[in-house]
Structure formats: C-alpha cells, structure tokens
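Notes from hallway chat w/ T.B., transcribed later so I don't forget. T.B. wanted the structure written out for a chain they're using in a teaching module, and asked if we could keep both sequence and structure tokens in one place. Agreed to drop them here.
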Amino acid sequence: MIAPRVQVGSPLGLHRVLAPPGVLPQAAWRLDARPQLWADEVRVTVDRLNLDAASFRQLREAHAEPTAMRSAVLGIVADRGKMQNPVTGSGGMLTGVVDEVGPDSPLGLRPGDRIATLVSLSLTPLMLTDGLARWDGESEQVPCCGHAILFGRSIAAKLPADLPVELALAVLDVCGAPALTRRVVTASAGTHPVIAIIGAAGKSGSLSAAAARQAGAGRIIGVVPHEAEAATLRAACADGDGALVDAIVVADARDPVGVSSAIAAAGGPADVTVVCVDVPGCEGGAILSTAEGGTVVFFSMATSFTAAALGAEGVAADVTMLVGNGYLPGHAQLALDLIRTQPGVRGIFEHRIDRGDPDDRAEQT
C-alpha cells in the first residue's frame, strides 16, 4: 500500500494539474500521475486502454508501423501524464482493477473491483510501465500495464460478468451516444420523428439506432459510406426481433448536398440527425439533412464547433445543435442492456472488435 497524501484534494482533480495553473485536468498540458493518493482519490491498476476513434485514426495515419504507434502513445503519456492526443485533443477510456481507495472517496469502489472508467483519458492521470509490449498497433484497444488515478467526481462502472471484457469496454466507450439519442427522441416521440443516423453501422451509431427505436422513432434512416458497411447494417437488421433501421443510404457524409439529398429520398429530412463518424467535415451535411426546428446531435470528436455554428447560420438553418458529452445518468446500464437484448447490434460490435476497427468512417473506399 502506498501511503495517502495528507492534503485534501479537489474533487475536480485541480491538485493534479502541473501546467498551466488554474485549468481543469482536461485542459491541462501536464498532470501529476504519481501513485500516492489524496484522500478522495482511487488508484487503478490498468490493464487496457481504449483509444477513442478520432485519436486512433490520427495516430494510425501518422505512424504506420506498430513500433512507431507504441512510441507515439508512450511519448504522449510520459510527456503529459495522461493519454490526450495533442492533435485531436481526445483520449478514450480504460479498464483495470481498483488497487487502493482513499478514505474520503465518494465513488463507492473497493479494492479488487474490476472497472471501466467512464471519464476520458484526456483528464485521467496515467502512468504506463510495460512499454506497450503486447500492443500490435492495429486495434484501438491497447493491452498495457500501469496505473491511473480517479478523482472524487470521476465516473467508473464495474465491468459486467456476463460480457467479455473487450465487448464491455467497446460498449462503455460510446455509451453516451444512445443515452442522449434516447433523450432527444423521447422528447419528440409524440410525433413519431424521422431519425437519421450518420454512421449507423458503427458502434455508437448502431447503439443510437437501437435506442431511437426503443424511444419511439417513426422512421430510422441509416447512413453508411460504402456497400460493405451497408451489408453489415443489413445483417444487423436481419439478426433480431425487428429492423435496426428502416432505410439504408450509401453516401459520403462529407458531401453536404449528396448526403442530404440521399436522406431526403429515403424519407427525410430528419427531425433528429445523429452524427457518429470519426472524420471532420460532416457538419454541413448533417445540418442540411435536418428539418427546420429539428435537432442535430454530434458525437464525433472530429466535429468543429466553428463549422457547425457558421455553417448553420450560412444556410439559414433553424436547427438545435447538441454536442454529446459522453455522460448522462444511467448511460452505462442503458448501453449494456441494448447489447444484451439486441443481437444485431452485438453482432456489429463483435465484428468490429474481431477486425480491430475503431468505429464508423465517413470516407468512401
């Protein structure tokens, strides 16, 4: 056991910020990742990182060789005391076993609990000790050894015993998407809204489609970038009690006129458009695909606030735009229950885990 510090820490983790002073841990350039605990902290022995889709894509495009990928991630963590891609600003999440709990921790965790964090690696103090020797650089899931620190206002979920760790981690990584989709669709359920899911054959997209169906969507349009993704979505629609989506559109989400025209032809415009792809340039198409007075929900870390705000203004679009922040009360349980009850969605996850895919991709191949 490592003796706790005597100081009282901030539940926000401000005491772990090394530079610059006065910012929250997510905005910090560097965090203190030393293992000694403040009284309200929890230390976790880490065994797996799950890099978010945008970060993994950027790293893989910049570093083709596995050795270079490992060096890049190790360098980021060593320099910053956390896993925050300096290009995308995003991180991911992790799994591990609770090692020690400070006496004032409010998280309800105990030593030995196997957990997944539900807060971003971009704000989680992290130290790696194994050189990522077991990671081949081909998957966003990174086996590793090290430790991480959770704050008083961090969020974690105990991993379910009935699901494989890799599957549970992949689900929990995107659990904010179906939760917010359900909330938005429920608010419109009396009108049986039309929902467009851009990236519907991916992890966050398929969960969002399932959540929209349960919340009372009238018509769900699934947008995918190419025929291979369409085939994946068709298989998911056939593998369950009901269709995951009502129409499948093959379109490049970065082509505003093309994707909006395709969605219109499939029954749009959408009352709610949910963007679940991991490349930039999808803002205009999502806005044009949405009916006046409708809502666009952006879940991609590649989303540009400037492009979305000025793009909507430039086409005189009266739409509400929401940024999914990854947290809503009950979001983890909702997503896990969808995986348990929706075989088509589970099939998409297992297929992507087997292939090592990060998530939805907007570009044509």
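Follow-up for T.B.: Residues 14-159 form one domain. Might be a good example for the class.
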